[in-house]
TrEMBL record:
One of its GO terms (molecular function) is RNA binding. Residues 117-130 have a biased composition (Polar residues). This is RRM domain-containing protein. Keywords: RNA-binding. The lineage of its organism: Eukaryota, Viridiplantae, Streptophyta, Embryophyta, Tracheophyta.
């Protein structure tokens, strides 16, 4: 019993000193933000409504799976200025949206994908594409 009261006392004392788990600490160079931790039920419209109070919102996009159409749990928000994006990053980081804690970070530029190998793209003499998988794929 004394153990539980000690834990409760510790939690009460430490809860006053807690800050956000992750902070958007890097200086923004672009007005685009990366939003992670989104609920599967979060839509573009809900994301737009949550981030609109911080400035002129250009775009709010939840990234979805092509096959299922469900949210992948992250999205992007773009503002008209970097100052508005910084204000939104500080205001919405580690906040609840649709019951989930979301995290706001600066968006990074998209990395170029390596070009696909031309061998696997070309069909064989019979018109079929050859899959040259080596080893067990079980």
């Amino acid at each position: 019993m004394a153990f539980f009261s000690g834990v409760q006392r510790f939690l009460r004392q430490s809860s006053h000193n807690l800050t956000s788990v992750r902070l958007c600490s890097t200086t923004l160079t672009t007005p685009k933000l990366f939003i992670s931790g989104l609920s599967r039920q979060t839509t573009d419209r809900k994301l737009n409504e949550a981030f609109a109070p911080f400035g002129q919102l250009i775009e709010a996009k939840v990234i979805t799976d092509r096959a299922s159409g469900r949210s992948k749990g992250f999205g992007f928000v773009s503002y008209a200025s970097i100052e508005e994006a910084e204000k939104a990053g500080k205001g919405m980081n580690a906040k609840f949206l649709d019951g989930w804690v979301i995290f706001v970070d600066p968006a990074k530029p998209r990395e170029p994908r390596p070009p696909m190998q031309s061998e696997s793209q070309q069909p064989s003499e019979t018109g079929f594409t050859v899959n040259k998988t080596v080893g067990w794929c079980g």
